[in-house]
Amino acid sequence: MQSKEVRSKFLSFFEGKQHQIVASAPMVLKDDPTLMFTNAGMVPFKEFFLGNKKVKYSRIADTQKCLRVSGKHNDLEEVGKDTYHHTMFEMLGNWSFGDYFKKDAIAWAWELLTEVYGIDKNDLYVTVFEGSDDADKLAMDQEAYDFWKAIIAEDRILMGNKKDNFWEMGDQGPCGPCSEIHVDIRTAEEKAKTPGKDLVNMDHPQVVEIWNLVFMQYNRKANGGLEELPAKHIDTGMGFERLCMVLQGVRSNYDTDVFSPLIREIETITHSKYNTDETINIAIRVVADHVRAVAFAIADGQLPSNTGAGYVIRRILRRAVRYGFTFLNTKEPFIYKLVHTLSKQMGEAFPELKSQKQLIENVIKEEEVSFLRTLEQGLVLLENIIKNVKGKVVSGEKAFELYDTYGFPIDLTALILSERGLELDEEGFETELQKQKDRSRAATKVATGDWIHCHDTDEEVFVGYDTLKADVKITRYRKVESKKEGELYQLVFDQTPFYPEGGGQVGDKGYLEASNGGVVYIIDTKKENNLIVHFAKGLPRDVEGTFKAVVDEKQRARTAKNHTATHLLHQALRTVLGTHVEQKGSMVHSNYLRFDFSHFSKVADEQLKEVEAFVNARIREQLPLDERRGISYKQAINEGAIALFGEKYGDSVRAIRFGESMELCGGTHVENTADIWHFIIKSEGAVAAGIRRIEAITGDAAKEYFVEKVEAFNEVKAALKHAKNPVRTIGILQDENAALKKQIEELMKEKAKNLKGDLKKELQEVNGVHFLAKKVHLDAAQIKNLAFELGGEMKNLFLLFATQDGEKAILTCYISKEITSEKLHAGTIVRELGKYIHGGGGGQPFFATAGGKNPAGIEEALERAIDYLKETN
Ligand code: ATP
Ligand code: MG
User: Fold this and answer.
1) pLDDT (tens digit, 9 = 90+) per residue, 336-371?
2) Residue 873: pLDDT above 70?
3) In which family does this protein belong, per the annotation (predicted)?
4) 351 and 455 part of one domain
5) Mind listing the pLDDT tens digit for each residue in 580-621?
6) Share of the chain above pLDDT 70, in %
7) Is 322 near ligand 1, meaning CB less than 6 Å away?
C-alpha cells in the first residue's frame, strides 16, 4: 500500500464515522507562549480542550505536521540512530470534543487497523494505565481495560506506568490516561524466540508503538494538582511513517516510499551506499530526516536564525551538515539539492514545498555554506587546543568555548580527540552547559498561576474593529511572574476592544476604569491559544465589577496607518518587482513598519523609488476601506485576495481591500488611504538568502522625518554662511581641502629632507657605533622612511626616535643589520624601553616600534637607549 493510500484511507474511514476532515495546521506556532512547534496532533485544538473556544465540529480527523525537537517532546538526539523516530513527522488523528469517549475510540482504532488496513491481530498489543500511588493517587483505567477485553485476548493487554500511559501536553493543561497500540513486525522465527509482549516499550525497533489513544479527562493545575474536566475528550495520534512501515512490510521507516527517494538521492550525491556500514546509515538517515524538517519549517515561514524557533531550525540543519561532513565526506553544500526530490515527492500533499522550492533551496544552501566555514575554522581552533593540551584530557571549559562561541559541535570535538588518542572531559563540558542553561532559564523564568474565574461566559468577543471603548467584565485572571517583567496580571474580558498582537501588528495598550474611578493600565495585549489576554501591572480592587475598557487611540491610529501602508507596500512590490514576491514576515508598530519578502537580489534604488511612489499614489487616490467580515475563504481567494502561507485560516475570513489591494487580514486599518498622509522607505537590506527587508514610516513619523531633514539642512546652510547653493559650496570646500592636503605632504617631505641633514650632524659615536636617540615631530611612517634613508647612507647605525601623537607615544628603533646582536636587537629594545611609555611592541632585530599611553616617559626612554651600547662585564 503506497503511503498516499495509507493517508487517504485513514481520513475516509473517519469521514465515514461522521468526522469533519480538516487540513494540517502550520508546524511553526505563532501565538502560544509555551510551545514553539506543533509537537502533536492535538496542538491546533488546544483552544478547544482548554475551553477558550467553542467547537464547531465535535468530531474531527486530520493529518498534522509535527516537529519534536524542543521542550517536553524532544527526539532530536535519537533521530538517525534508530529507524522509527523523526524530527518532523505526520501524525494521523481523530478527535472527539465532548462527544464519544473511550468505547468508540477503542473500537474504531481496532476496526481500522485490523479490518481496513488488515494488520494481523496476533501482531498487536495494547497498554492500559496501571494507576499511580504518587501525589496524584490515580486509579487504574479499568474502563479502558474492559473495552479492550471485549475485543482482544487478555494476555495482549499490558499495564503501563505513568511515563508511558499518562499523556500530558506540558506542565499545565489538559491531560489524561492513554492506551497505546503496539505492533510486532519481527519474523516468525524471532517471535518464537522472544514473545512480543516482553518487548513492548523496550525500545525494540520492530516492536513499536504506532497509535496512542489519549483520554482527556483532567486538567493539570499550576500547583501540580489535577481537576476533572467538565467535558471529556478523545485525542488520538498515529505515526504515519510507522504505519507505512507496517503496511509496506519493511523493517524501518526509512525503507518506506516516504523516505526511499530521498535516500537514493543522498546515495547518488554523496557517492555512499545505504545499508553497508552503520555509521554511514545513521548519517544518511539524519540527512534524509532533517531536510524534511528544515524544508517544511522554511515553507511555514520560519527561517533559520540566532534565537527561538529559528535557532532550533538552524541546529537541526547544522546537525545534518555535520553528519554529512564527518561520515559522508561532504565538504561542499549538498543538502539543498535534496529539496527537489522532496518537493516532487510530497508537493502534492503539501503544495507549499512546490511553490517555495527556490526559496527553500537558497536558504538551506546559504546556511550550509556558512556552517561549513564554521567547521573549517573550528577544526583550526581545535588543532590549537590539541597542540597546547597538557596531559591527555582536554578540559570541558575549552570544549564548551568552542561549542558556545564558535558553534562547533561537541560530538565532533569528542570524535576528533579520540582519534588523536586524547580524551574530552565530558563531565566538565556538561557542567558548563548546565551553568549556561541555568543562566538563561533564570533570565526568562516565568511562573504562571492558575486562572481564577469570576464570571461565566461562552466565548470572549472582539469588538475592537468597531469601537475603542467598551463596558467589560473580567471573566478570568491570573498572576504571572517573570524575572524580566516582574509581577503582572493577565486579564480576560467577556468582550474587548483591545487588539491582540497578531499578523505582525503590535497589541493595543490602554486602560481599564472601574465605576469608582480606579484605573488599571493595560500595557500589552496578546493572543494565547485564541484567548485575548490583557497584561496589566495590577489588579482592580473589585474584580467582579464592570469596567470601561479604553484603547489608547493615538497608538492605534498610528499603527493602523502602518498596517494599511504595509498592504500597499506588498502590492507595490508585486507590481514593481513581480508576483514572485511573497510576504515572509511583517512588523506593524506604531512608529514604523517592517516588511520581509522573497526576492533574489538587492532592490535597485530606482525600483525603491518606484515602490515608494506607487504607495504614495495610492495614498493620494484616497481609497476607502472596503472591509468584509465573515466571507468564506474560498470566495475571498476567488476574488483575488492574498492569503499568507503558514497562517491558520478558518472557513470564514476577513478581507481587507483598498483599491486593487486585497488581503486576508485580521488587523486594524485606516478608513481611507489618505489618512496615511505619506509613506517613506527608510532602508532596504538582506535578511537571509533570497529574503529582503524594507523598513518604512508613515503619518506623524513621516512628518517628523521631514521636519528633521529641513532642520538639519538649515544648520548646514548656516554653517556655510547661508550660501546660495550649498552643494556647490561644499564641492568647492572639498576641492580646496584636497589641494591643501597635497601641499602639506610636499612640505613635510621637504622638512624630513632637511631634518635628515641636521640629524646626521647630531650623531654621536659610542664604541664604534653611530648613535642617536631623539624626539622628532613626524608621524610613524615618516620616521620609518627617515630611519631607512639614514641607514642606506651610513653603516653601524643605532637610532631611537620617539614621537608624541596626542595622548600616545611611539618609539621607533633602527639598527644597521651588520651590528645587530642578541643585545642590540631592535625588538627587544623597544619592548624594554616601552615600559617607560606604558606600552609595548616589538619587531625585527633591525627595526621595531612600540606604542604606549604615557608620553611623559619619552624622555627617560631616550636617555636609557645609550645603555645598550655600554660594555657590560
Ligand atoms: P515513542 O515512545 O515511540 O517515542 P511517544 O509515546 O512519544 O512514542 P506519542 O506522543 O504518544 O508517542 O505520539 C503518538 C504517535 O506518534 C506514536 O504512537 C508514534 O506512532 C508517533 N510518534 C511519536 N513520536 C514520533 C517521532 N519522533 N517520529 C515518528 N513518529 C512518532
Ligand atoms: Mg516519544
Assistant:
1) 999 999 999 999 888 889 989 999 999 999 999 999
2) no
3) Belongs to the class-II aminoacyl-tRNA synthetase family.
4) no
5) 899 999 999 999 999 999 998 899 999 999 999 999 999 999
6) 100
7) no
On whether both 590 and 525 belong to a single domain, the answer is: no
Q: Which of 551, 581, 614 is the last residue in one of the domains?
A: 551
Same domain, 340 and 474: no
> Are residues 817 and 674 part of one domain?
no
Domain extent, residue 544, equals: 451-551
797 and 814 Cβ atoms separated by less than 8 Å? yes
Assess if residue 718 is contained within a domain.
no
Residue 584 near ligand 1, beta carbon < 6 Å: no
Looking at the domain assignment, is residue 626 inside a domain? yes
241 pocket-lining for ligand 1 (C-beta < 6 Å) = yes
- Examine the domain organization and report whether 79 and 227 are in the same domain: yes
- Give the distance (Å) from ligand 1 centre to CA of residue 29: 20
Q: For residue 591, give the CATH number of its domain.
A: 3.30.980.10
CA–CA gap between residue 118 and residue 868 (Å, rounded): 97
Same domain, 474 and 569: no
What's the CA-to-centroid distance between 206 and ligand 1, angstroms? 14
User: Residue 665, annotated ligand binder?
Assistant: yes
Q: What is the per-residue pLDDT for 442?
A: 78
401-407 contact pairs (CB < 8 A, 24+): 402/378, 403/429, 404/432, 404/436, 406/374, 406/377, 406/378, 406/381, 407/318, 407/371, 407/374, 407/378
Q: What is the CATH number of the domain that holds 486?
A: 2.40.30.130
Ligand that comes closest to the CA of residue 163: 1
* Burial degree of 672 (CB within 10 A; 0-12, 13-18, 19+): middle
> If we measure between CA atoms, which residue out of 791, 796, 786 comes closest to residue 764?
796
Q: How confident is the model at residue 505 (pLDDT cuts 50, 70, 90)?
A: very high
Minimum CA distance residue for ligand 1 atom 7: 73
**Is residue 809 pLDDT above 60, yes or no?**
yes
Ligand 1 pocket test, candidate residues 204, 212, 259, most atoms within 8 A of CB: 212
Measured between alpha carbons, how far is 525 from 506 in angstroms, rounded to an integer? 8
Confidence of residue 647 (pLDDT cuts 50, 70, 90): confident
- Counting ligands in written order, the one closest to the CA of 211 is 1
For the chain, how many structural domains are there in total? 6
Ligand 1 neighbour 85 (Cβ under 6 A): yes
Give the percent of the chain with pLDDT over 90. Answer: 75
In a domain, 712, yes or no: no
Do residues 67 and 107 both lie within one domain?
A: yes
Q: What is the 84 CA–ligand 1 centroid distance (Å)?
A: 9
Residue nearest to atom 12 of ligand 1 (CA): 212
Q: How confident is the model at residue 871 (pLDDT cuts 50, 70, 90)?
A: low
Ligand closest to the CA atom of residue 164: 1
Is any ligand 1 atom within 6 A of the Cβ of residue 292?
Answer: no
Distance 34 CA to ligand 2 centre (A): 19
Ligand 1 neighbourhood includes 281 CB (under 6 angstroms): no
Cα 459 from chain centroid (whole Å) = 33
Measured CA to CA in angstroms, residue 174 lies from 85, 215, 421, 528, 641 at distances of: 25, 10, 51, 15, 37
Among protein residues, the one whose CA lies closest to atom 19 of ligand 1? 239
Confidence of residue 333 (pLDDT cuts 50, 70, 90): very high
The single-letter DSSP state of residue 124 is E
Ligand 1 pocket test target in 73, 129, 209, 213 with most atoms within 8 Å of CB: 209
Do both 140 and 264 map to the same domain?
Answer: no
563 annotated to a ligand binding site: yes
Report the b/e string of 679-709 with b at 16+ CB within 10 A: bbbeebeeebbbbbbbebbbbebbeeeeeee
Domain of 212: which CATH number?
A: 3.30.930.10
173 Cα–ligand 1 center, Å:
20
